């Protein structure tokens, strides 16, 4: 079984946690994930300052039968956490679970669609400024 973890940095701020939960609900709606299909629902977890952590999410998925887990970072850039902290957590967890295949995807900012999104937002801001 394949498992998916969407991994974000998290925040101590209640407003940020609320925004994260709203995003989680929107993604679940778009993917048509309901409680009836909860085995397919990826845990959307915070990495730091939030609820749960990566090792706990990996444990939960493997307990449910996952043997191939994709970790999708909700990070804009491949900074320190994506280059060091998270791979170290993965490596430590993997030592205790050698039969589980783990993969760590790239940062969102490396997705070429981000150029279109940023260009659109710049265009909207420019329009708002000129009133056109």
Helical run tally:
4
> Strand count, sense and closure of the main sheet?
4 strands, parallel
The strands making up the biggest β-sheet line up spatially as: 2-1-3-4
Strand content: 15-25%
Distance between the termini: 52 Å
Overall pLDDT confidence: 85
Q: Would you tell me the structural class of the helices and strands? A: alpha/beta
The backbone outline, from C-alpha atoms, is elongated
Question: What sequence of helices (H) and strands (E) makes up the elements?
Answer: EHEHEHEH
| Low-confidence runs | none
Helical content band: 40-55%
Number of DSSP strand runs: 4
- Rg from Cα: 17 Å
Task: Please describe what this structure looks like.
Helix 1 (14-30) links the parallel strand 1 and strand 2 (44-46). The model has no long low-confidence stretch (mean pLDDT 85). This protein has a 4-stranded parallel sheet with strand order 2-1-3-4, covered by helices on one side. It has helices spanning 14-30, 54-63, 80-96, 113-130, and strands at residues 2-8, 44-46, 68-73, 101-104. It has 4 helices and 4 strands. Helix content is 47%, strand content 15%.
């Amino acid at each position: 079984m394949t498992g998916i973890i969407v991994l974000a940095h998290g925040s101590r701020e209640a407003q940020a946690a609320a925004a994260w939960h709203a995003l989680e609900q929107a993604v679940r709606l778009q993917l048509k994930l309901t409680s009836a299909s909860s085995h397919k629902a990826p845990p959307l977890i915070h990495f730091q300052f939030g609820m749960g952590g990566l090792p706990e999410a990996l444990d939960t998925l493997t307990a449910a039968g996952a043997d191939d887990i994709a970790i999708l970072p909700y990070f804009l850039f491949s900074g320190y956490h994506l280059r060091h902290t998270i791979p170290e957590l993965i490596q430590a967890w993997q030592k205790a679970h050698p039969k589980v295949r783990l993969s760590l995807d790239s940062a969102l900012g490396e997705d070429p669609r981000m150029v279109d999104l940023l260009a659109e937002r710049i265009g909207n801001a420019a329009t708002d400024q000129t009133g056109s």
